[in-house]
Automatic annotation (TrEMBL):
This is Zinc-type alcohol dehydrogenase-like protein. It comes from Alicyclobacillus acidoterrestris (strain ATCC 49025 / DSM 3922 / CIP 106132 / NCIMB 13137 / GD3B). The keyword Cytoplasm does not apply. Keywords: Metal-binding, NADP, Oxidoreductase, Zinc. Coiled coil: none annotated. InterPro entries: ADH-like_N, ADH_Zn_typ-1, ER, GroES-like_sf, NAD(P)-bd_dom_sf, Zinc-ADH_QOR/CCCR. CDD domains: AL_MDR (cd08252). One of its GO terms (molecular function) is oxidoreductase activity. It comes from the Bacteria.
Length: 341
């Protein structure tokens, strides 16, 4: 039996506890069906990692491995694979219903994997999949925004929480699509980050939206993309969106939302959850493969920039605990990446 290094947990504990994430030696998996086995070169940490790891009474009999952003090299492929071969450089987010990528080798269905941008390092590429899929699906699949700039002339989008990982990509994609982009941020450093990634305007999400929008010449916006505290901003978003406009959120609400606020506007509310296609094995799950390949072209042509801000090495429990703590601080900008086992 071949074994490999990994970082995981048995108990769900505060990140200050050294057993919240521990170094492990586990069995190396073997690819079957359409799975590929990837040698992991770099991983990124997202809020979903901290949410899954958050303290709870459950105890695992087998180690739970987190991590849903990977860049690496295909080591082996299952018998039904057609998209990749050993040696290919790949990047992907994986599936929330399977073991994550914080391991030296990782199994993933090839239909949700893309070819890594040739212009990026493994660390730079690992920062992209989860946030990019979320931003892309949220805007182009859920809000049904056209990718053609000519179709979006005069249209605007408000991105709530624009300095984070998803917001940094969403801002760039929205600008490429020809939208006027208004991002929210609350600090000078995060506001500058939002502007640097292409936002036309920045407003403060701790202050009422509509007066700030009116001050920069907007009575309302066509789209709202919420990436932070859905219930806290719900009333402001419903007021800011235009009649027959659309609101999309990626953050589960901690309390019920009053959808009646959108009734008179005939407004539309939609969710985006980038794990849906993999979780339910939807007929179109290969769209994530196509999406990541298209994103790689945009990156290699210089139209989209990676959003990595911190790189830690090596990939071990100590550094992953450090990254989780940074995420839980709520003040991170861009993405945190770890490289090298």
């Amino acid at each position: 039996m071949q074994t490999m290094k990994a970082v995981g947990l048995y108990r769900y504990l505060p990140i200050t506890d050294e057993e919240s994430l521990i170094d492990l030696e586990v069995e190396m998996p073997v690819p079957t069906g359409r799975d590929i086995l990837v040698e992991v070169k770099a991983v990124s940490v997202n809020p979903v990692d901290t949410k899954v790891r958050a303290p709870k009474d459950k105890v695992e009999s087998q180690p739970k491995i987190l991590g849903w952003d990977v860049a690496g090299v295909v080591h082996a492929v299952g018998p039904d694979c057609t998209l990749f071969a050993p040696g290919d450089k790949v990047y992907y987010a994986g599936s929330i219903t399977r073991q994550g990528g914080n391991s030296a080798y990782h199994l993933v269905d090839e239909r949700i994997v893309g070819r890594m941008p040739s212009s990026l390092s493994f660390a730079q590429a690992a920062a992209l999949p989860l946030t990019s899929i979320t931003a892309w699906e949220g805007m182009f699949d859920r809000l049904r925004i056209s990718r053609e700039p000519a179709d979006n002339q005069g249209r605007s989008i408000l991105i709530v929480g624009a300095a984070g990982g998803v917001g940094s990509i969403a801002t760039q994609l929205a600008k490429l699509a020809g939208l006027t982009v208004i991002g929210t941020a609350s600090r000078e450093k995060s506001s500058q980050w939002v502007k640097d990634h292409g936002a036309d305007y920045v407003i403060n999400h701790y202050e009422p939206f509509v007066p700030q929008l009116k001050a920069i010449g907007f009575e309302h916006v066509d789209y709202v993309f919420c990436l932070n505290a859905t219930e806290a901003h719900w009333g402001q978003m419903a007021e800011a969106v235009r009649p027959q406009g659309m609101v999309c959120s990626i953050v589960e609400a901690k309390s019920d939302l009053n959808l009646n606020l959108l009734k008179e506007k005939s407004g539309t509310y939609v969710w985006e959850y980038m794990f849906t296609r993999a979780m339910f094995q939807t007929d179109d799950m290969i769209e994530q493969h196509h999406l990541l390949n298209e994103l790689a072209k945009l990156i290699d042509s210089g139209q989209i920039q990676t959003t990595v801000t911190d790189v830690l090495s090596p990939i071990n429990a100590e550094n992953l605990r450090r990254a989780h703590a940074m995420i839980e601080s709520g003040s991170t900008i861009g993405k945190i990446v770890l490289e090298h086992f």
